[in-house]
Amino acid sequence: MEVMISPVAVCCIILAVFMAGTVAGGDRDHEPQFTRPIGNLTAAVGREAVLACTVDHLGNHRVGWLRAEDQTVLSLHTSMVTHNPRITLTHDNYKSWQLHIRQVKETDKGCYMCQVNTKVMKKQIGCLDVHVPPDFLVGDTSGDMAVQEGDNATLICKATGNPQPRVTWKREDGQKVLQRKGLRDTVEVDVLAGEELHFWKVDRRQMGSYLCIASNDVPPAVSKRVYLAVNFAPVIKVPNQLLGAPLYTTVTLECHVEAFPNTINYWVKNRAEMLLNGSKYAVWENQTGYYKVVMWLSILTFRPTDIGTYNCISTNSLGKAEGTLRLYGLADTSASESSKSKSSTTVESSARDLQINQPFIILSLVTALLRHFNIPLKLS
Known about the structure:
Helices cover 14% and strands 47% of the residues. The chain is mainly β. Residues 32-126, 134-223, 234-326 form the Ig-like domain. Keywords: Cell membrane, Disulfide bond, Glycoprotein, Immunoglobulin domain, Membrane, Repeat, Signal. This is Ig-like domain-containing protein.
């Protein structure tokens, strides 16, 4: 017949055997003595912790290890009681008894008791502190966020670990963190400490990715990326609203757009047809930041029919904006200068010829007058 014994009964039997190991006829003058305290120990998660209990004059007494909080028996003299494969026991000629805890876990944190079964039980305690690298509390940490410009926003980042992690914030792109201190005053800092990053009346310049970094000197430190989007209607700035260009050259018009979310951008002439890429026009744009875009329109051969008003237009779900540019033609200054040069050369040449032939011209005029009035011409 098989007899079932409960774990509690097993522990009681073990303790009874442990206590029964006391030798009544032992040398009372040389009772077991602890030679040094166990001391407190710190180990990082995943490492090995070794608690040492050193006893002199052990004789026929026995040494046992227990967890102090719940009196769980781990070892009894040279035998292991716990079924935890990570916990083992070694001894140095029955003098130094080492309790090894491999691949330490956070649950191993606590105090451990070394006992010797003397008539009056002798014991000492050593405590293990387990250092845990930081980790984020997912439910309490912000994800990506979108707010309207002018609203308030708060990014939250909570972390756990032992020791308690330090939390800092910085921008992922390396720019400074912009903080508003009043309606007009702002300050810029490299790093902000604390679990919460507050934005009051958020500005489009504060848009971007922020890194929450948690560290507690137990590697590795961890970081989480949180993107703050600031929504606002398009705004267009035109660097040059009135532009003159020589005819039959390539002319490029430019507009700067600020908006979020992303916009649809296009060009029109004289508020009529939309201008598209082709043999006549080249249209392109480039995003220069989270919310900035530069638009260009090139007129590949600027003709008199291209003179007029051009509009760059940008629209998103929050609104629409447009910029106006007026384009006019310039005269061909090189041809004008050439004509002036030729005219000047002709006048100068005529004057020079007149100066050289002046005596001959005068004589011819006098001869003609004499013949007209029938006056004989006598030459001496």
